[in-house]
Amino acid sequence: MNLATFILRRSFLQVFVLFGVTLLTFFLMFIVPGDPAVMLVETGGFQPEVLERFRERWGFDRPAYKQYLTYMGNLVQGDFGVSLVTKVPVSKQLGRFLPATAELSIVALLMAVVMSIPAGIVAAVNRNRLTDQIVRIFSLFGVSMPIFWLAIILLLVFFFHLGWLPSAQRIALARDLPAHTTGFYLIDTLVEGDFSGFVSVVHHLLLPAFVLAFSVVGLLTRITRTSMLEVLGQEYIRTARAKGLSSRVVLYRHALKNALIPTVTILGLTVGALLSGAVLTETIFAWPGLGRFVVQSVLSLDRAAVVGVTLIVAVVYSMANLVVDVFIAIIDPRVTYD
Amino acid sequence: MKRGSWLISMFVVLALAFVVACGGDDEKAVPAAAPSIDTAALSKVVQEAVQQAVPAAVQQAVPQQVTAAEIQRLVEVAVAAAAPETATPAEIKSMVEQAVAAAAQPGATKEELEALVTMAVSESAAAIQPGVTAAEVQKLVSDALKAVPTPEVLVVTAPTAELPDLIVRDVFFTSNGFTPPLGGSFFEHRWTYALYEGLTALDTPAITRGDFPPAIPSLARSWAISPDGKVYTFQIRPGIQFTSGRPLNAEAVKMSLEHTLFALDYDGSTSRFGWAQIIESIEATGPMELTLTLSETYSPMLAAMAGKQLFIVDAAELLSHQEKDDQDRDDGGINWGRTHSAGTGPFMIESWAPEQRLVLKANPNYWGGHDGVHPSVGRIIVAHIPENATAELQVGAGEVDVGMQLDPVSIAGFETNSKVEVFSYGSLITCNFLMDRRSPPLEDDRVFQAVRYSIDYEGLRDVVALGLGTVHQSLFLPGMQGHDPAIANRYTYDPDKAMALMTEAGYPDGFDIEIHLRTGSCGAVPYQKALEFFQNNLKEVGINATIVQSTSAKFWGAIVEETFRGMGISGLGATYLDGDNVASVRATGECFMLGLDDVDPVAGARLAELEKLGRSEVDEAVRNTIYEEMSSIMVDKCGLMTVLQVRDFVAHNSDITGLVAAPHAFTIDYRYIKKAE
To answer: What contacts B170, CB < 8 A, 6 or more positions away?
Structure first.
């Protein structure tokens, strides 16, 4: 099986996964106790006829399976439905909130890679020495420290006391928001030629991205270290050393490539952790992403919005893992497309 | 200035003639020539006149094209302020009408109007004290002008981009958007009040001082009500424009009210209630006269008009954005209006980014409101900061000017920060313990009262609400008809009495019951803390209450379906300052849903009767009595047990001044807020 066939096959299977996601999410929303009509009908509306009118308007008076079929009928035409809370098409809201979460997650992922892989390598090379111990403590902090606590402490230090970094949102409050071109402010400010705006966006990304990254750095560092140690113990590494290759060449050309395979695999799974971790980070740093949107949607029993977000997250997650699988197949000839 | 001088001369002649004429009838009307000038008295008269007349004159002149009717109003204001106290309003009106009819011409400039009103004031003052020379009066006027507080003079200028920006922290919750009468969330409700106005308004500075005057004129300058209370004739205030530039007139108000009815029918999450159920006709009976005819007497009409449900929208602007909705219906521009503004209010929406920020800018066409105050900030940047700890740091560091919706625990953090001040005010939000009266043994009035006596109201206020509340056991709050401090404090914390009542009811060993908890708070009072406190209170009298977790949807669903059992908690807000707000929404709403009419049909029937009586009674004193009786019944029998009136608060930087409460809007009145530059 060649690469193109592999991707096509995996993409085809994704369709069934996504169908399952919609089915599960949609019907889980019916199990949640409560009536959206009661939640959303306004003052003076607690009258049976008003509630009935609301249910009729939004199709809640029909059996669940019929509602689901209607939803799926619209979905295959690209229509995610209308949010019954905001009365705005869900696709429009996803287009608004997804780029914010994606920008934060991508920067956090890059930060995590930049921090964890070198740290893992250094720890492995200096096994059981002081450097290794320091990296271990650092990793343990990363794994065990709650995002909420870390975020508040960093805000207190870097925003409140030192005044080095901004506190919240994607760009300075006194600045106008960039026009929505891509939704990625790093790009949109540059498209507008607003360099100072770009700098402001970078400043605003630092703390939330670091907090989000730190939650996975510990795991990635430990995986990299363990994997590196395993590779460094392999015979071909010993052979390379015996041939008189420099440590640098042995480490980076021969060991690292193989040691990264487990790390890259975990990195794919980490996308899910970053997206779910973003809920807390977005709340603390007032980041207008999917996290807050989905929480509000769940609380309001906004089924179309919840299913829409779940679907998008599932797509992103499965796409990320597909990319990882392809990447691993490229860097490891032993892996075949099947 | 030739035309202005001519206008002034005509007016002065007529004004003096009027004063002299009045003097002929009554010696007290015009004081005899004084041997010496009572400078203090005269200065007071002039100062009052200037303070009242000049800002009004200039704000009206901002559009530069001023009509005869507007000049008439300005002169009325000046004369009313400066003329002898004994002159009747009718005499003043008659005299002014003659003067204006003779003198006023369209197209007066701002300078001409200012001169006209200033001279009118000074000449009228001179007439009161005939011994005063023109030069002396002129000096007094000049002094008085200087004495007018600087911002009052500054506000005569239309808002410009030079005014400072105000950064406000809020917690967004988007529901139906910002166009009245929609906008279901507290967040939308708050900011709708900065964008729109009603024919009437509440005097927010007076409310901040603790007074509760009835609704005052706003977009309507005056009104007349038929003796049966069914026909309201409003005189629309001239010279007002919507943010679109369209003039406000009777036709525009008619379109607005019709659009409101359309919106109530369209949306599905709202319904016609109150006035909207009994409206018979809306007619523009003159260019600036609107007549509303109701099929029944509806006494809360003027109070309701000061609220969101009857705010005046630029219906023509909304309709210009009409499109088909997802059900292929014409939406009347409602969907556009969810994220845009089309009102006459002090601010308008500049931009809206959901879950991020709402930016309002000062309305350049603003007319100044009932007291001539224009916004002193150019823009309000409302930032969505959901996490309280983040917001607290932002306010503390001065990054945010005003912090709204903060947790009361933040106040302690601000106590050591000299740059942060806290402004608190009595809100229209109450904290209520809910009790299903059908759940045995709660159907017994003695058990109900035992629960009432078991609550440590003051402890709840001090420990749970951290002092941000007032013990208040009735939903009829200060400012509403039916408010009676004696009823609102009928029950005291008395566990012994509670035990005695329990024993009398046959429950000497208490009973078990469930309390339903859900996420949320009533103003500053977190539900969980309040219920845990309540649980301990109940335990003292032998009631073993178990807290069970619920959700808002489940909780309210059960109440509406009348399947709710046990106890719970809810914060409730009133949106207009009239006893009818409680009577129509709560008394025959939640009280009945919680079983009052089932366990005590007589009391239930009486509440329903009182609701109708209160609405149809035109005599305010009688309405007060009606709602007092209703309040008394509710306090003694309704499962909606009000315990606290919550005090709302904002934390702000010390360079922010002009904080005025707008409790009906669940916020402060941003028209008055000032920021030092």
So the answer is: B187, B190, B358, B382, B383, B384, B385, B404, B405
Shortest CA gap B405–chain A (Å): 15
Query: What residues in A contact B177, CB-CB < 8 Å?
Result: 86-87
Q: What is the pLDDT of residue B393?
A: 95
CA dist., res. A80 & res. A89, Å (int): 7
CA-to-CA dists, residue A133 to A125, A174, A247, B469, angstroms: 12, 44, 22, 54
- Nearest chain A residue to B593 by CA distance is A46
| Statement: residue B640 has pLDDT above 60 | yes
Which residues on A lie below 8 Å from B351 (Cβ)? 176-177
B172-218 pLDDT tens trace = 887 778 888 886 788 888 999 999 999 999 999 999 988 888 899 99
HSE-up (13 A, CA, CB side) for residue A289: 32
Check CB contact under 8 Å for B397 and A293: no
Contacts of A294 (CB under 8 A, 6+ apart): A279, A305, A306, A309, A310
| Secondary structure element (H or E) that encloses residue A52, with its range | helix A48-58
Main-chain phi, psi angles of B293, to 5 degrees: -120, 130
Q: Please give the Cα distance from B487 to B630 (Å, whole number).
A: 10
Chain A partners of B555 at a C-beta cutoff of 8 Å? Answer: 34
Window from A309-323, B67-81, B188-202, B365-379 with minimum mean pLDDT: B67-81
pLDDT tens column, B285-339: 999 999 999 999 999 999 999 988 899 999 999 999 999 887 788 999 998 998 9
What type of residue sits at position B371?
D
Is B446 at the interface with chain A, CB within 8 A? Answer: no
Whole-model pTM?
A: 0.79
Question: Nearest by CB to B268, which of A53, A155, A289?
Answer: A53
Q: How far is A237 from chain B (nearest CA, A)?
A: 50
Which chain A residues have a beta carbon less than 8 Å from that of B304? none
Q: How far apart are CA A169 and CA B357, in angstroms?
A: 9
Strand, coil or helix: what is B416? Answer: coil
B407 in reach of chain A (CB within 8 A) = no
- Contact yes or no for A167/B390 (Cβ under 8 A): yes
Nearest Cα to B384, choosing from A289, A240, A71, A307? A289
Q: Which residues of A touch B393 (CB under 8 A)?
A: 155-156, 159-160, 167
Give the Cβ contact number of residue B533 at 10 Å. Answer: 18
Tokens standing for residue B377: 């900030």
A and B: number of Cβ contacts within 8 A: 149
pLDDT value at residue A265: 86
Assigned token pair, B625: 């009595």
B527 contacts B518 by C-beta, under 8 angstroms: yes
Secondary structure of chain A: what % helix, strand, coil (to 5)? 75, 0, 25
Whole-number pLDDT of residue B28: 32
Asked whether the CA dihedral A267, A268, A271, A274 is positive or negative, the reply is: negative
**ipTM of the prediction:** 0.86
| pLDDT of A280 over the 90 cut | no
Exposure string (b/e) for B430-448, b if CB count within 10 Å is 16 or more? bbbbbbbbbbebbebbbbb
Query: Residue B521 belongs to what H/E stretch?
Result: strand B521-522
**CB hemisphere CA count around A3 (13 angstroms):** 9
The pLDDT value recorded for residue B17 is 40
Q: State which residue of chain A sits closest to B383, comparing Cα positions.
A: A173
Question: Does position B81 have pLDDT exceeding 60, yes or no?
Answer: no
Which residue from A167, A292, A301 is facing B394, i.e. has the nearest CB?
A: A167
Interface of B with A in 512-531 (CB under 8 A): 519
Rounded Cα–Cα distance for residues B667 and B664 (Å): 8
Q: CA–CA separation, A288 vs B358, rounded Å?
A: 13
